[in-house]
Amino acid sequence: MTHFNRRQFGLLLASGAATLALPTYLRAQAKPKVVVIGGGAGGATAARYIAKDSKGDIDVTLIDASDMFTTCFFSNLYLGGYRDFASITHGYDRLESNYGIRKITDYATAVDRATKTVTLADGSTVPYDRLVVSPGIDLIYDSVEGYSEEAAQIAPHAWKAGPQTQLLKAKLDAVKDGEQIVMVTPPNPFRCPPGPYERASMMAHLLKSRGHANSKIVIIDPKEKFSKQGLFQEGWEKYYPGMIEWYGPDVHGGIKSVDAAAGSVETDFDTFKGVLLNVIPRQKAGVIAAQAGLTNETGFCPIEASTMRSENDDNIFVIGDACIAGAMPKSGFSANSQAKVAAMTIRSELTDSKAFPAKYSNTCWSLIETDDGVKVGAQYAPKDGKIASTSTFISQTGEDAAVRKSTFEESEGWYKGITADMFG
Amino acid sequence: MLRYFRQILSRTKWFATTFAAGLLLCSAQSLAADASRGEALFKACSQCHEVGAQAKNKVGPHLDGVFGRKAGSIEGFKYSSAMKRAGDGGLVWSVDAIDAYIHKPRTFIKGNRMSYRGMEDDQDRADLVAWLEQISLTKPSANANVPSTNAVVGFATAVLEIEGDPDYGAYLSGECVTCHQITGKADGIPSIVGLPRDYFVRSLFEYKTNIRQNEVMKTRVINLADEEIAALAAYFSSLTPQ
Ligand SMILES: Cc1cc2nc3c(=O)[nH]c(=O)nc-3n(C[C@H](O)[C@H](O)[C@H](O)COP(=O)(O)OP(=O)(O)OC[C@H]3O[C@@H](n4cnc5c(N)ncnc54)[C@H](O)[C@@H]3O)c2cc1C
After folding, report:
1. How far apart are alpha carbons A358 and A24 in whole angstroms?
2. Nearby residues of B19 by Cβ (< 8 Å), 6 or more positions away
3. B80 CB within 8 Å of a chain A CB
4. CA within 20 to 30 Å of B54's CA: A205, A311, B191, B216, which one?
């Protein structure tokens, strides 16, 4: 299934032939180069849109450490038993075959902004005219005392999808009736604000469906409130009475430390124990962003609201979880939306295509129980140098079952839509 | 050679599917159908389909003469390639096939673009199909592909007079295709590729004015100026479903 129509294909061939006829130094100038670091929600979308819309006039290289991408979105549904792992894992083959994108499977270790090159773990370098940085998040393990990358092998965070998600699933599957799970959730800002609470719902669903209604999930939260709180708490009472307990700082007094081996979380007022700990620590932009000098004191990257351009470098665009996007939450939907603004800007700079005023959008669905989906979303536009929301909505408590069911079906449609939009 | 094989394969697959569907339908078939209920039940379809004398293509193809017709075969209508493949693979519309299709549109033909959830009730389907069988004997309009222009109400007509900028529409569409697949597949979110321009414009106005209730669409449409709606309509109606 190719996505180029005949005319575009002809153009591709024509420009390919022209390129071959030129001497090397001219060839380098003939086609501008865009390099994208990170093949997730932001990066894959940006690479695809630049390649698709420039119809072969821009050389696009996509660098991701892995040859497969597992989406964090819907990984909670995998935990709940609604999806298998393969259904949330995607390859880059169509981006290569249908859009002519060069995919490099390696880790980017450095960006040299002076020479405009990216260095890979194997020592080779890749030159760029414009660079898109979409590395997602990295975890600040020691933001929770006692937690570390090693401890995550016992108490998974599963906040980057992949082996961590499978580890959490295996441990969840081993929980017996009456046993307790303790979740430690992160402070703001973090990837996917409703994510931890959807995860608690999905874990409770799995336990309940196995007849383990005496099990319990305790959430120790450093925040006083959380995304879609009313909707989640209503759902928890309805479907999982007594199974999910949420404690904010006024109940636990503050998180002091975790002991993964002992399965305990110590807070100011109490010690919580569980057979399974899910610790989601504080987050920062993927480390490459700091290495490249794109972050500020928050650990994330300031950008220009109308283009997604880094405030620190005119040739670099930072999108997705790694950037500071004003009112937009860190979500796959947001990353995908920001990618399109960056792609349009980059194309207009490199090929003189038209640029239009930036618009952004987001919707986050969460599943509480089978056929009971809720959503929150907004539209955004640049305002006074920041990305501000222009209209918002959220599902209501007490909605009828038919509305919730169609909301869930919508989220399934969206998953197909966004993954097709990322990977072609 | 390969192509030949694929054809055989898809034919066998069709045979298997229709056969299985036939078996499942035994219960539906044994229901006594009451065609007099059909017209009311067709309300579920009339948003997209016309049937009866002078019927035209709308969002969906007209249904005149549909019984015995090869699937996906009306000249000039923008079918999905899934629907055309089904037709080429041997699917011909019959009472059983239509019943099975409208029961579960998404699973009966994977990747088709009919954005309809499905009619659960066996009796309702039997009655509707029985009515359809009678009414569809009429002749369609001679130029069934010329869109009717009176479908748009009130202020929406102003938008139809604006010639949309398809380049702008292409950029704006980026926001839409995170949910509505650009291939035109309907997988839980309706297909909007190849929708007639007037229908497209009218439905956006229906979200804007609360005639249709869906929060994700409402929040998006509220911010769209007339030029933007026109640009989107120009772009999406120019696409061909895959
Ligand atoms: C449990 C959970 C549920 C979620 N649910 C939703 C949801 O329902 N809806 C929603 O919209 N969002 C959801 N999200 C959020 C969403 O997953 C992220 O916001 C989104 O993936 C961010 O996109 P990104 O491009 O910034 O980063 P990512 O998608 O994480 O992509 C970054 C990629 O870059 C690679 N990378 C990083 N550094 C380098 C380097 N130096 N060299 C090479 N490769 C590198 C990484 O390996 C990764 O593949 C969820 C998240 C979680 C954890």
Report:
1. 37
2. none
3. no
4. B191
Q: Is the Cβ–Cβ distance between A218 and A274 less than 8 Å? A: yes
Instruction: Read off the pLDDT of residues A307-336 as tens digits, 9 standing for 90 and up.
Output: 999 999 999 999 999 999 999 999 999 999
Q: Are A362 and A329 in contact (CB under 8 A)?
A: yes
- ∠ Cα B201 B202 B208 (to 5°): 95
What are the boundaries of each domain within chain A?
Answer: 31-138+284-357, 154-281
CATH code given to domain A154-281? 3.50.50.60
Closest CA to A362 of A333, A335, A324: A333
Nearest CA in chain B to A408: B188
The better pLDDT of the pair A108, B223 is held by A108
| Window 183-212 of B, Cβ < 8 Å to A | 183, 185, 187-189
The structure tokens listed for A130 are: 């414009």
Which chain A residues touch B177 with a CB distance below 8 Å? Answer: 417, 421
The SS3 of residue A35 is strand
Superfamily, domain B35-135: Cytochrome c-like domain (1.10.760.10)
Of B167, B175, B218, the CB nearest to A359: B175
Three-state secondary structure string covering A251-274: HHCCEEEEECCCCEEEECCCEEEC
Kindly indicate the confidence band of residue B198, based on its pLDDT and cuts at 50, 70 and 90: confident
Shortest CA distance from B172: residue in chain A: A359
> Crossing angle for the helix pair B95-103 and B2-24, nearest 10 degrees?
90
- Residue A279: phi and psi, rounded to 5, are -105, 120
